[in-house]
Amino acid sequence: MEPLLKLLRENASYSSAQLAQLLDMEESEVKTRIQALEDDRTILGYMALINDEKIPVDRVRAVIEVKLTPEREGGFNHLASRIARHREVTACYLMSGSYDLLAFVEGESLKDVASFVSEKLSTLQGVVSTSTHFMLKPYKEHGMLLASDESNQRLHVAP
Where are the alpha helices (DSSP H) in the chain? Predict the structure, then answer.
């Protein structure tokens, strides 16, 4: 992976001056490269990873395994794209194995997520079945440990 992209993936809040220093480049060259990566949609956006346990926002997250019937011309692409467009879906992946699509869904309550699955997702033509797993507590997201009391402990080595 390109060093600039690697640094941005690790910490999207780096300024162009910081990136230039870390990459031993001119700041103008970094800005030009970032603009080109944004223009060709290599960089789609920038996000902050927030520990939801630190803020007073209740939300319910679920992982939904979806089995699909592929379409003759487009395979899974059309239906997967249609599912991914729902505002409740935060991520959606084509998978290999016992199900075809993995969808990450968020709602304000269990009822919201259940309604999405029963009224919007499972009723789509081509959706064969769904299996919903509610997420209870996150420990690590996007490579970052979320539990502060354990973040500095090393893993034990087995004899």
Answer: 3-10, 16-23, 27-39, 77-84, 110-115
